Amino acid sequence: MGLQALGEIMAHVRPHQVFYLGPIPVYSTVVNTWIIMALLVLGVFLATRKLNFIPRGIQHILEMLLEFFYSLLEETMGKEGRRYLPLVATLFIFILSLNLSWFIPGMKPPTMDLSTTAAFAVTTIILVQLIGIRKKGLVGYIKHFFQPAPFLFPLNVIEELVKPVSLSLRLFGNMFGEEMVVTILFIMLPFLLPTPIMILGVLMGLIQAFVFTLLTVTYIANFIHGH
Question: Which stretches are transmembrane (predicted)?
Answer without folding.
Answer: 24-47, 84-104, 116-133, 171-191, 197-221
